[in-house]
Amino acid sequence: MGQLEPLRFTKMHGLGNDYLFIDIRDMEEVPDDVWKDYAIKMSDRHFGVGSDGIILIAPSKVAPVRMRIFNADGSESEMCGNGLRAMTKWLYDRGEFDPGQAIETGAGLLYPEVLKTEEGRASVIRVNMGVPRLTRHEIGMLGQGESTCIDEPLDLDETMLHITCVSMGNPHVIIFGPLWDEQTMARLGQKIEHHPMFPHRTNVHSVEVVDSHHLRMRHWERGAGLTLACGTGVSAAIVAAVLTERVERHATISVPGGTLEASWDEGTGVVYLTGTAQEICQGVFELR
Ligand SMILES: N[C@H](CCC[C@H](N)C(=O)O)C(=O)O
User: Fold this and answer.
1) What is the 194 CA–ligand 1 centroid distance (Å)?
2) How far apart are CA 207 and CA 163, in angstroms?
3) Where is this site: Could be important to modulate the pK values of the two catalytic cysteine residues (predicted)?
């Protein structure tokens, strides 16, 4: 692995979906395969620090700052909803967040808003997650590029599922029904993540409709496996549930790590995600 000088990081989480933040704005250019290696080694929960991935606080040509996310398996994703709330907190708490500013992501320029603070530190953040992408082409699925995938059958040999697919810049498969337990989520999540229909793989979510304003979810994340929360997955779930007329446009979403509020605005088509973000610790990573 390409050797970097000792890396300062901040460990943060959004409902237990935890990431190691590294400010690289003053660093020399580092090849992506070095970050891939660092993501794998730093995320390891026994031989490293332990996280669902790393997030780089990077320079941007189109916004004050850019967010790049590498999953625990080293793969890079376009977007991370919990990570974006945590990054907003990281910037705000250091006096580097200007209200109304954008953060550049793989899903475009997104606009977070600090809704609540505690002792001068951001605690609740709302993110304009942008508009969902619904065509197979935009989601990165095989098949008719301009067609959508809403409540369609997926034959997994052992079982026939009905899936609804939504991209928030990153791909998500939503399966409605009684909430899967962890074992089922892991078994079927991994199969669907690597299904040939998704050449770039996909995130997978089991979603139970509690009532027209409340969903309960479990996540299998591309490149990270079971996680306690998935912000883009929650955003995809409210879109899929509204499209299939299972909920109203504003709902509370219960995930293993806590609760998020999500809404899909009818006028603008924008999804809003509101929830907490917390800083756990800071440290220096150096493999010796
Ligand atoms: N595993 C995801 C990235 C992290 C998304 C999730 N942690 C969130 O909060 O949105 C992917 O490969 O698309």
Assistant:
1) 16
2) 11
3) 172, 221
Which protein residues touch ligand 1 with a CB less than 6 Å away? Answer: 17, 69, 71, 77, 80-83, 170, 203, 221-224, 227, 230-232
Amino acid at 250: H
Which amino acid, one-letter code, is at 237? A
Rounded to the nearest 10 degrees, what angle do helices 231-243 and 81-93 cross at?
Answer: 130
Active site (annotated) includes residue 230:
yes
Per the annotation, binding residues are 17, 71, 81-82, 170, 203, 221-222, 231-232
CB atoms inside a 10 Å sphere around CB 187: 15
Pairwise CA distance, residues 163 & 173, whole Å = 6
ipTM: 0.98
Domains and CATH numbers, the chain: 7-129+276-285 (3.10.310.10), 136-269 (3.10.310.10)
Is 0.95 surpassed by the pTM of this model? yes
